[in-house]
């Protein structure tokens, strides 16, 4: 299995934007100039031009990490994207876990538990897809696709409970982006 250093995707609670930060250096990626190797820059360019991603700036940011830039093929790039999806799912899952520990109504607790399970499922699925991409790309594609209804149902539960915290909405939105990129 390829070894990648997973970059942290930081969700700003106030602006709900993402930024990728280099570990240890804490330098925003936009400040780092990395020459793109010819082959991989074409590969990343193909992914960046897909209209279905819904958020071009998110796509550009996620695909501008040094690991993405040097990916030799779509499989390596897909593995990296799935690992970023795992990191996002775990970060959002931690938020749900913190909220569950705080006193709340039974209805709210039910919604939070539902979303917690959805994010556990998403995290495990993204991890599984990372290893499946090499052996069975079609199964990997299917496994990414079936994450979406879980996250969509979580969103519906949150809206029905009138729980519209920006960081939860952002976590759901970014999860949809990773799912779209992975399909």
From TrEMBL:
PANTHER family, alphabetized: PLANT INVERTASE/PECTIN METHYLESTERASE INHIBITOR SUPERFAMILY PROTEIN, PLANT INVERTASE_PECTIN METHYLESTERASE INHIBITOR SUPERFAMILY PROTEIN
Protein's UniProt name: Pectinesterase inhibitor domain-containing protein
Keywords: Signal
Signal peptide residue numbers: 1-19
Superkingdom field: Eukaryota
């Amino acid at each position: 299995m390829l070894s990648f250093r997973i970059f942290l995707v930081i969700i700003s609670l106030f602006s709900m934007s993402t930024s990728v930060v280099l570990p240890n250096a804490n330098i925003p990626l936009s400040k780092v100039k990395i020459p793109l190797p010819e082959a991989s820059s074409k590969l990343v360019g193909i992914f960046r031009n897909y209209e279905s991603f819904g958020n071009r700036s998110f796509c550009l940011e996620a695909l501008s990490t040094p690991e993405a830039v040097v990916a030799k093929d779509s499989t390596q790039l897909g593995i990296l994207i799935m690992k970023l999806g795992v990191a996002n799912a775990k970060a959002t899952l931690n938020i749900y876990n913190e909220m569950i520990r705080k006193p709340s109504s039974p209805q709210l607790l039910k919604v939070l538990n539902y979303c917690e399970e959805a994010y556990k499922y998403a995290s495990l699925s993204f991890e599984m897809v990372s290893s499946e991409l090499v052996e069975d790309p079609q199964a990997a594609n299917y496994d990414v696709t079936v994450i979406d209804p879980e996250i969509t149902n979580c969103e519906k539960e949150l809206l029905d409970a009138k729980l519209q915290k920006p960081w939860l909405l952002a976590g759901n939105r970014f999860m949809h982006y990773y799912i779209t990129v992975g399909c």
